[in-house]
Amino acid sequence: MWTYYPELLAKPVPRYTSYPTAADFGPLEAGSIERAIAGADGDISLYLHIPFCEQICYYCGCNTGASGKRARVEAYLAALHQEIATVASLLPEGARVRRIAFGGGSPNAIEPREFMALVDSLHAHFPLYAPSWSIELDPRSLTAEWGGVIGEAGITRASMGVQTFASHCQKAIGREQPATMIVRSIDRLRAGGVTSLNFDLMYGLPHQTTGDLIDSLDMTRKLGADRVAVFGYAHVPHLVPRQTMIPESTLPGAEARFAMAAEAHSFLTAHGYNAIGFDHFALPHDPMARAVRHGTLQRNFQGFTDDPTVVLIGMGSSAISGFPGLLAQNDKHNGRYRMLSGQGRLSASHGIARSAQDRLRGGVIEALLCRNEAELPPCLLAEVRDRLIPFSQAGLATLTGNRLTILPGGLPYTRVIAALFDSYRQVTQRAFSSAI
Ligand code: SF4
User: Fold this and answer.
1) Helix or strand or coil: residue 383?
2) Among 50, 54, 57, 302, residue to substitute to test ligand 1 (most atoms within 8 Å of Cβ)
3) Closest Cα to atom 5, ligand 1: which residue?
4) Whose alpha carbon is nearest atom 7 of ligand 1?
5) Exposure b/e, 240-257, CB count within 10 A at least 16 = b
6) Distances from the Cα of 392 to the Cαs of 138, 405, 418, in angstroms?
7) Across the beta sheet with 397-400, what order do the strands follow?
8) Please, what is the average pLDDT of the chain?
């Protein structure tokens, strides 16, 4: 069981789906993204962002809008088709697409025929080398027709936003989806060929008790989710105005949240799931668990991944692309994104060129998050040695020579320990969620 040290968790820290993080992005030199794509030789991954949902949940901090306004959706998809053509025209001959992920929002908020048109466009424009296809889905709009489309597109990995099975919590977060709906969705996905199915669950929800969380985890395991992500709800209504629908008084406190995270970890590992970091879990047969065993787990903008490629090209408004030397984000404003993309231009004018220092620090942060240990280069060891003392004194981490190891009790402190290597956090502390 983990021990709660509130003073060590007091500072909000990034999730580190990249280093530097998106909070540290600034204007990019003109032509940066075009040059990076033109130099993307070898295996690459693609990500397509669909910023629409049929219904907007109160807690959601994503860049998404209601899909009911059809003209907006159609104009956005036209721009996305244009961006597919523009990106493909810039790729060099040797590029090979190995992974394609659709995220959002909810990709199944668009029409199935619109989705298949995107799939066809990817086939037509890119050098696809038997890629692995994945998708994020909202069970509330996962129709039988969508089940057919999953099979037709060859999607084998899916992630469903389940969050909780407790109906009183669902009501409080504006996301009502009975268990029968989840079961029906699973049947459709499995019949469509999905072999790796992730459930996103949440703790720290309004009116949620530890018992509610355990019930949801038990249901998840019985329904056979191959992967489970258990995220803490981040209540930041000053940044996400729709969260004002959730009164702060209904939320579990920091210590209760910590206990819930600990219970989730104990429950899932006791029921056959392998822990990935402190909040992700996978059954041993799942590619994510295999990546942990083989030491090949990585972090990218989608979180933990077994994707071995180092180039991820994001398409769609606000999508982020990652290259060894560059992180670049498309325009977040749908209107500007549509205008630029419609002109055959790429909208990623924001991001950061990764320096050698960034790569060094990013490598340590990624190793800590993915493998719970890292070899520290002498310059970083000297910098953090004293700041590690509270963590080693509390039995959360050990430093042996230049090897930093996060101990089992230190798992919930991983992001805080990783943040010690983040030179940008020493300068600025923007709004991040709490570490747990
Ligand atoms: S379905 Fe997902 S992306 Fe859409 S509003 Fe709800 S939480 Fe946000």
Assistant:
1) helix
2) 57
3) 56
4) 60
5) beebeebeeeebbebeeb
6) 42, 10, 14
7) 373-375, 403-406, 397-400
8) 96
Mutate which of 64, 137, 246 to test ligand 1's pocket (most atoms within 8 Å of Cβ)? 64
Strand-pair partners of 353: 326
pLDDT in tens, 157-202: 999 999 999 999 999 999 999 999 999 999 999 999 999 999 999 9
Q: List the structure tokens of 69.
A: 């306004």
- CA 187 vs CA 11, 183, 296, 342: distances in Å: 42, 6, 31, 39
pTM over 0.90: yes
For residues 199 and 88, give the distance between their C-alpha atoms in angstroms, rounded to a whole number.
32
Report the SS3 class of residue 32. helix
N-to-C CA span, the chain: 15
Q: Measured between alpha carbons, how far is 289 from 284 in angstroms, rounded to an integer?
A: 5
Alpha helices for 143-178 (secondary structure H): 144-153, 167-172
Average pLDDT over residues 206-226: 98
Tokens of 291: 């990546």
Average confidence (pLDDT) over 209-233? 98
Which residues have C-beta within 8 Å of that of residue 353, sequence separation ≥ 6?
Answer: 28, 29, 32, 325, 326
- Say if residues 161 and 198 touch (Cβ distance below 8 Å): no
Residues 6+ apart with CB under 8 A from 113: none
Digit-coded pLDDT (tens) for 2-44: 999 999 999 999 999 999 999 999 999 999 999 999 999 899 9
Residue nearest to atom 8 of ligand 1 (CA): 60
Give tens-digit pLDDT for 287-343.
999 999 999 999 999 899 999 999 999 999 999 999 999 999 999 999 999 999 999
Q: CA distances (Å), 96 to each of 43, 90, 135, 347, in order?
A: 5, 13, 20, 23
